[in-house]
Amino acid sequence: MVEIVNLRTVKKQRARAERRAQGDEKAAKSGRTKAERDLARARTEKAARDLDAHLRDDG
After folding, report:
1. How many CA atoms lie within 13 A of 53 on its CB side?
2. Total structural domains in the chain?
3. What domain range is 26 assigned to?
4. CB proximity list for 57: less than 8 A, separation 6 or greater
5. Would you give per-residue pLDDT tens digits along the chain (59 residues)?
Protein backbone atom coordinates (compact mmCIF):
# COMPACT_ATOMS: atom_id res chain seq x y z
CA MET A 1 0.00 0.00 0.00
CA VAL A 2 1.04 3.53 -0.69
CA GLU A 3 0.95 6.05 2.11
CA ILE A 4 -1.37 8.98 1.48
CA VAL A 5 0.47 12.30 1.80
CA ASN A 6 -0.91 15.81 1.98
CA LEU A 7 1.20 17.67 -0.57
CA ARG A 8 0.56 21.05 1.01
CA THR A 9 1.93 19.83 4.35
CA VAL A 10 5.00 18.29 2.70
CA LYS A 11 5.64 21.54 0.83
CA LYS A 12 5.39 23.57 4.05
CA GLN A 13 7.71 21.17 5.89
CA ARG A 14 10.29 21.37 3.11
CA ALA A 15 10.14 25.19 3.08
CA ARG A 16 10.44 25.26 6.89
CA ALA A 17 13.50 23.00 6.77
CA GLU A 18 15.13 25.18 4.10
CA ARG A 19 14.53 28.36 6.13
CA ARG A 20 15.92 26.65 9.23
CA ALA A 21 19.05 25.54 7.35
CA GLN A 22 19.55 29.04 5.96
CA GLY A 23 19.15 30.55 9.43
CA ASP A 24 21.61 28.09 10.94
CA GLU A 25 24.09 28.92 8.20
CA LYS A 26 23.78 32.66 8.86
CA ALA A 27 24.06 32.15 12.62
CA ALA A 28 27.20 30.09 12.22
CA LYS A 29 28.71 32.74 9.99
CA SER A 30 28.04 35.81 12.11
CA GLY A 31 26.59 34.73 15.44
CA ARG A 32 28.11 34.03 18.82
CA THR A 33 27.51 31.03 20.99
CA LYS A 34 25.60 31.32 24.24
CA ALA A 35 28.81 30.74 26.18
CA GLU A 36 30.50 33.64 24.39
CA ARG A 37 27.55 35.95 25.10
CA ASP A 38 27.50 34.94 28.78
CA LEU A 39 31.25 35.51 29.09
CA ALA A 40 30.99 38.97 27.51
CA ARG A 41 28.08 39.87 29.81
CA ALA A 42 30.00 38.68 32.88
CA ARG A 43 33.08 40.68 31.87
CA THR A 44 31.10 43.91 31.41
CA GLU A 45 29.32 43.42 34.74
CA LYS A 46 32.67 42.83 36.49
CA ALA A 47 34.15 45.93 34.87
CA ALA A 48 31.20 48.00 36.09
CA ARG A 49 31.54 46.58 39.62
CA ASP A 50 35.28 47.27 39.67
CA LEU A 51 34.74 50.83 38.49
CA ASP A 52 32.06 51.43 41.12
CA ALA A 53 34.37 50.01 43.79
CA HIS A 54 36.99 52.67 43.00
CA LEU A 55 34.64 55.63 43.27
CA ARG A 56 35.40 58.05 46.05
CA ASP A 57 32.77 58.58 48.68
CA ASP A 58 32.91 62.35 49.32
CA GLY A 59 29.72 62.37 51.38
Report:
1. 6
2. 1
3. 7-53
4. none
5. 889 999 999 999 999 999 999 999 998 888 888 899 999 999 999 999 999 988 887 76
